[in-house]
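Translate structure to sequence.
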């Protein structure tokens, strides 16, 4: 499955390196938009929320969606290529 992880980190100067490191543990990830990651995983959005929640502050926002083949947008070509390799098409 492919998940979209997006967040709004509100604490200026906070070190979120552990959050980013945890996301990268997915192994296969894409991150070319500031607050958005796309990962390939066998784990559910709930599982990833539970993994990432300890690395954010209580006033931050975090949403994780499963991406389906029904999406559209404006993004770098690398994003579309990454998704296409995972059998997703716009």
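Result:
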């Amino acid at each position: 499955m492919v998940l979209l992880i997006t967040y709004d980190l509100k604490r200026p100067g906070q070190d979120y390196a552990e959050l980013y490191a945890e996301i990268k543990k997915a192994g296969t990830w894409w991150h070319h938009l500031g607050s958005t990651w796309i990962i390939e995983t066998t784990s559910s959005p709930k599982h990833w929320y539970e993994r990432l929640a300890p690395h954010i502050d209580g006033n931050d926002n975090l949403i994780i969606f499963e991406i389906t083949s029904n999406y559209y947008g404006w993004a770098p070509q690398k994003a579309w290529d990454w998704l296409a390799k995972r059998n997703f098409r716009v």
